[in-house]
């Protein structure tokens, strides 16, 4: 993301802000995916924990605010992202989600392992 920011948007600071936001969104994907080793995140059963849902919502809001609020920009050394730059930050978390779901699909398809004797 840093390299993309430098090459496409001509700013290392934009790249760093994109990487920070992308990492925060990947943490949300990981929290969703870690709720079950084999079940998909597309079921409502994965959203039974009220505390976890609130934590993910707050993390999502903070991930956006870090690049949009001047106080966070000064504190963390980020810069404001435009919509096009923010759209690029969604690629790694979406790729992580797709690959994790593919892995879970393959595990479900293979079925439960046979018990060892």
TrEMBL record:
The chain crosses the membrane at residues 14-32, 53-71, 86-107. InterPro entries: ATPase_P-typ_cation-transptr_C. This is Cation-transporting P-type ATPase C-terminal domain-containing protein. It comes from the Bacteria. Keywords: Membrane, Transmembrane, Transmembrane helix. Residues 12-106 form the Cation-transporting P-type ATPase C-terminal domain. The lineage of its organism: Bacteria, Bacillati, Actinomycetota, Actinomycetes, Kitasatosporales. It holds the Pfam family Cation_ATPase_C.
